[in-house]
Design brief:
CATH topology of the largest domain: Heat Shock Protein 90
Largest sheet: 8 strands, mixed
Number of helices: 10
Helix content: 25-40%
Number of strands: 15
Keywords: DNA damage, DNA repair, Endonuclease, Hydrolase, Nuclease
GO molecular function: ATP binding; ATP hydrolysis activity; ATP-dependent DNA damage sensor activity; endonuclease activity; mismatched DNA binding
CATH architecture of the largest domain: 2-Layer Sandwich
Bound molecules: adenosine-5'-diphosphate, magnesium ion
Strand content: 25-35%
Family: Belongs to the DNA mismatch repair MutL/HexB family.
Domain DNA mismatch repair protein S5: 205-323
Strand order of the largest sheet: 5-4-3-6-2-1-7-8
Shape: elongated
Structural class: alpha+beta
Number of domains: 2
Order of helices and strands: HHEEHHEEEEHHEEHHEEEEHEEEH
Organism: Porticoccus litoralis
CATH superfamily of the largest domain: Histidine kinase-like ATPase, C-terminal domain
Radius of gyration: 21 Å
Amino acid sequence: PRLANQIAAGEVVERPASVIKELLENSIDSGASRIEIDVESGGVKLMRVRDNGCGIGEEDLPLALSRHATSKIEQLDDLEAVATLGFRGEALASISSVARLAIATNDRDSGPGWKAEAEGRDMAVNLAPVAHPRGTTVEVRDLFFNTPARRKFLRTETTEYKRIDEILRKLSLSHFDIDFTLRNNGKVAHQFRAAGTQLEQERRVAAICGPAFMENAIYVDMEAAGLRLWGWVGLPTFSRSQADLQHFFVNGRSIRDKLVTHAVRQAYQDVMYHGRHPAFVLYLELNPADVDVNVHPTKHEVRFRDSRTVHDFLFRSLHRCVADIRP
Ligand code: ADP
Ligand code: MG
């Protein structure tokens, strides 16, 4: 409890996409190589995430559903070097307080697994054996069934689905090694095959950012002073939505940061005529100790220890490439 109080507790469940994000991050943390997502009615009726990760043991399952229980952090010091995506230990508990949540899981390669159901704030967790391969399936039904005030703030099914789709795109861009499938109302919307080679990665990026982006993009891979920047820089575009074609990851986490935006815009300066916007999918890798990505759990901000060096490195690396993509 002491630990929990020291960790910023953001309101996790705002809309279907925030549920999907938490569930996907859990599946990624579990070491899954395959993740399947089912969505019905914009996620309000159903969201189901199935993975082939490590699963949850029988004795840990009730714990996984309780607030501030996390298997991912031993002591506060670990926060400094959080390697896993989730660490607050309250996603499942928060979700089950506003929806009907069911988990089926197995942490072994043979034999039955266990299922648990939880609903509402006073959740009774009932455990029962169930047939399930190694891995975990989390099913969330009737989001906000018991909180009509929040349900009122939801947009149309199409809009809520679009946000789910955006979460998946971001996570697919930062986890090339995972096979993702998204089904919307029973129909396959995306199938991203695990991508090992650069060519396979470029296929996934093309599927997410559009073939036009990839056709004109230049592959970057620069290293200096303990920093590595790699990924793709594209022609500046009149994108419908700027955010669709601007993806920046720091140590695998999607971020939106003033310093990064500034460095990129400067690098693109000479080619941004007629109100175009930079288009890029970029990955910055640096020593985790030199960056704080947990400034706020939901805001995607970062704080670099040496922001000047990072800014210069980004600008220099990109400026050279942008000159090459001049149409
Ligand atoms: P956190 O991810 O912050 O630890 P969560 O509430 O999201 O907290 O999950 C609680 C715990 O449940 C996790 O620490 C993990 O041990 C377990 N868990 C949740 N989802 C999965 C999953 N898909 N595979 C394996 N373990 C899981
Ligand atoms: Mg989590």
